[in-house]
Design goal:
By secondary structure, the protein is an alpha/beta fold. The chain contains 25 helices and 19 strands. α6 packs parallel to α7, α8 packs parallel to α12 and α21 packs across α25. The relative contact order is 0.08.
Length: about 625
Amino acid sequence: MPKTFKEIPRERPATPLLDQVEKPDDLRRLGEAELETLADELRQELLYSVGQTGGHFGAGLGVIELTIALHYVFDTPDDRLVWDVGHQAYPHKILTGRRQRMTTLRQKDGLAAFPRRCESEYDTFGVGHSSTSISAALGMAVAARLQGSPRKSIAVIGDGALTAGMAFEALNHAPEVGADMLVILNDNDMSISRNVGGLSNYLAKILSSRTYTSMREGSKKVLSRLPGAWEIARRTEEYAKGMLVPGTLFEELGWNYIGPIDGHDLPTLVATLRNMRDLKGPQFLHVVTKKGKGFAPAEVDPIGYHAITKLDPLDAPAKAPKPASGPKYSGVFGQWLCDMAAHDPRLVGITPAMKEGSDLVAFSERFPQRYFDVAIAEQHAVTLAAGMACEGSKPVVAIYSTFLQRGYDQLVHDVAVQNLDVLFAIDRAGLVGEDGPTHAGSFDLSYLRCIPGMLIMTPSDENELRKMLTTGYLHQGPAAVRYPRGSGPNAVIEPELTPIEIGKGVVRRQGRRVAILAFGVQLNDALQVAEHIDASVADMRFVKPLDEALVQQLAASHDLLVTVEENAVMGGAGSAVSEYLARAGILKPVLHLGLPDSYVEHAKPAQMLAECGLDAKGIAAAIEARLTQLG
């Protein structure tokens, strides 16, 4: 156990209960009185394992009791349990046969950061992006009914995921089809209500009990024979519940709302879940938890401890300082945003719940009236920007590449078709490492390049990023600048807000026979390779419009063109080069290097790049192999 963690004081059995629980079947053999001790041990286990590997932290600590109660009451994996967001699921992984592998979490060939169907039968639905659980669990409930199966479907949605429109679409649909399912809202930020305590827990037990349900159904049968009587009774019940609990919205949508209850009160959780387990129709349970529960720093700073890096013991030897590197690309964007906002009062910044990740903190503090965090609502973020652009504002949408996929229709229909001035600052482009394929920005060049009128730029360093952001901001029409996670090569950043000429690349090195066309941050690796094989290197800068004159020039003076990009090869920047050559009738061998037509599994970013042949060694090997073929 790392010495940075203190034991939770509680008398423990000689043999830890957690050692007796390999699978949920073992858990269900424990007595209810033992569950709180198990919760303490599970919390300590999570503190230890995530301290060893790093990863999402606070949300898992907050659902320890809920995870135990769910597996204790329901017959998992036959009953389907869907976690949303997926980083709540670390305690679930420990209790479902993966405890011994938790130290491999987020590492190459180790456990995934999120639930994955191929990893365990207890992971009933793959999760990476948020707000999918209610739709998935509804689909499972409908399938069970069609198959005549009694299995249950439970969605656990939390950590802000209920802010997304997709969740409400499913909430609206479930009562329409009369689905027998349970949605549990893990409210870990008190976003709906602070009404938690003894009275609230007591009411939840009463309202979820068989006695109350039987009385309600019996009254419905009797009163339904009297014109208008049942409707009056229903509204009376609704108003009475509305005064005591905050579930009116869900009741109006057709859900039987129970709660809020204390999500760390195991006896109440178990009793309430048992009461609700066999209720018919859509059921909604609201539980309030403390993000980071049991680890004081995470309780005080739930945002800072949302995820952590690997923790070292207090007595660990001091590590040698890391070599200096440049600022993070997101930091360069954040500084540019503040500088441009000070220069142009029309600028507004929009993010879908990524203020810290996209580095909009300083902007939000300096320009609060021009800062808009729309929560986990990517579609709304894009169309909000479109509406602002219609009225003369200059929106900048800061969004991760993987999350822009969720707003693609709005990008096409609401922004591009109308040729609106919206700049997309696309963070986390390319391979992002340990979070795996659901979070990788593998496809943005491909899905953006086919949109008419789209300006697409790929900076190779921090200074290029700043210049391209200015270029895209001043451009008339939609523009996108995509940049990776992490730090750059420490290029000198010019403070001016200076654009570059649109559609013009730059030759960075002149060589013989081979020309490497680099799109983005692979430029440095390309230059290393070029020194070895004496190749020319072009920083292409623009994917659209492509610098066709430069491509023609390089094709005329070299035997082989090599395109390099951290994007899917299919439909990406290299495809744009080949399409131009074919259109111009230029016959020239072209080698496309990029991400393969498969999902690249989680590992360290450097490991993932090496696996894809996108590090300097892989680029050199691929070029030498093609030159051998050409003779």
